[in-house]
Amino acid sequence: MKKKWVILLVTAVLFLAACSGGPGGGPDTESSSEEADTADAAQLADELSVYNWADYIDEELLAQYEEEYGVRIIYDTFASNEDLLAKLQAGATGYDVIVPSDYMVAQMIELGLLAEIDLDDIPNFANIDEDFRNAPFDPDNRHCVPYQWGTTGIAYRAGHPLFTETAPDSWAYLFEPELLEQYAEGGINVLNDQRELIAAALFYLGHSPNATDRTQLEEARDLIARAKPYWKTFNSEDYDDSLLIADEVVLSQSWSGDAANAYWSTYSDETEDGNWYYAIPKEGAVKWMDNLCVTASSEKVETAVHFINYLLDAENGAAITNFTYYASPNEAAKAYIEPDILSDPGIYPPPEVEANLQWLTELGDGLFVWDEMWTAIKGQ
Ligand code: N2P
After folding, report:
1. Is residue 204 within a helix (H) or strand (E), and if so which, with residue range?
2. Which of 271, 243, 259 is closest to 150 using CA atoms?
3. What is the bridge-based pairing of β-strands 233-234 and 276-279?
4. Global confidence as pTM
5. pLDDT at position 92, please?
6. Does position 359 have pLDDT exceeding 60, yes or no?
7. Domain 41-149+288-348 has what CATH class?
8. In CATH terms, are 41-149+288-348 and 152-287+357-379 the same topology?
9. Do 282 and 301 meet the contact criterion of CB atoms below 8 Å apart?
10. Closest CA relative to residue 56, chosen from 75, 82, 84, 69
């Protein structure tokens, strides 16, 4: 199941469905919905600006939306929640749809950066699994709807002598110099993401990933400072393609889907295996969910919501997961998601792993200490 193959398959399925007009054959196959669509299209803006995480959608879906509804999508990507926030706070008003994670949704609501949405305008919200609705960071989904979810663990090169007998299932593999010196030569990458990297250090130290205590955060900073000389790169944007698949590193802090992408992109039918495996450290790890939201500054709320509803369609939701390898909160999409993805414990963690996962939450004033630690870490 290679990425390109999946794209072709999905495209073919969508095409056939659109031609057949059968069940789930897209919104424009019956004349009544055609009329509704035309009515909709009349009210849609000419263009819509979407700001998403890097490598986080099948761009075929964007092209299809443009074609179907005559709305040009201006698509741009960011590398972390903090980058997204900084962009909005610097006064960027052009973005209509953005994709912040859980804790950042809470932060943005507080800062007045998100528009309120009406779920009545998003009928496909019915496709979302109950478990992912009404999250504490956005009660009653007043601002956002779920997009994709995943975990943050360690991706490692299969076949590396050091990881053959024991999987690197501890954050020690990212932070302990006596371990690091054994494979640093092969390259180590960490996520260029302050909440994720400091959270990993806090897990390893036995503290909460949401700690705001200065002493604990300084401990995390010092742990990172000792390990940093062994790290080759801070990359959370294209590390799966440019570092993992390219064999530029042998170990990386990684988001679940990016590790799965590295696995499937290097999969060989001959060995029936890929080059990259994924471990969730035993000390605990982050579970996160990214969300589709409309900016408070958007002047195209109606179009933004129409686009969000399109992404929440069952087949479109599946096309996203089949491309990104991240888990989908879209229950109805499961019928169309590749079975290999649905059964991958690295993507959909089993209950015993799930029990060891924690959400990142908003830090309130503690954020200032985190920012201070991050500046020190990056500045060294
Ligand atoms: C995919 C980005 C994953 C988003 N490259 C992590 N929240």
Report:
1. helix 194-204
2. 259
3. unpaired
4. 0.89
5. 78
6. yes
7. alpha beta
8. yes
9. no
10. 75
Render 270-336 in DSSP notation, one character per residue. TTTB-SEEEE--TT-EEEEEEEEEEBTT-S-HHHHHHHHHHHTSHHHHHHHHHHH--B-SBGGGGGG
Whether residue 283 contacts residue 203, with contact meaning beta carbons closer than 8 Å, is answered with yes
Q: Ligand 1 centre from 54 Cα, in Å?
A: 7
Instruction: Report the SS3 class of residue 197.
Output: helix
pLDDT in tens, 119-154: 999 999 999 999 999 999 999 999 999 999 999 999
Query: Could you read off the pLDDT of 198-253 as tens digits, one per residue?
Result: 999 999 999 999 999 999 999 999 999 999 999 999 999 999 999 999 999 999 99
Q: Once rounded to an integer, what is the mean pLDDT over residues 342-351?
A: 97
Q: Give the closest residue (by CA) to ligand 1 atom 1.
A: 56
Q: Where are the domains of the chain?
A: 41-149+288-348, 152-287+357-379
72 token code pair: 């040009």
Ligand 1 atom, smallest distance to 290 CA = 7
Residue 53 Cα to ligand 1 middle (Å):
6
pLDDT band at 40 (very low <50, low <70, confident <90, very high): low
Pocket test for ligand 1, best of 148, 255, 320 (most atoms within 8 A of CB): 255
Phi-psi region of 122 (alpha: psi -120 to 50; beta: other; left: phi over 0): beta
Maximum separation of any 2 CA atoms in the chain, in Å: 68
Going by CA atoms, what residue is nearest to atom 6 of ligand 1? 255
Q: Which two tokens stand for residue 157?
A: 């090169």
Options 3.40.190.10, 3.30.390.30, 3.20.20.70, 2.40.50.140; CATH of 152-287+357-379? 3.40.190.10
For 363-375, what is the mean pLDDT?
97
- Closest C-alpha to 148, from 357, 347, 302: 347
Name residue 50's beta-bridge partners: 75, 97
The reply to whether ligand 1 has any atom less than 6 angstroms from the CB of 138 is no
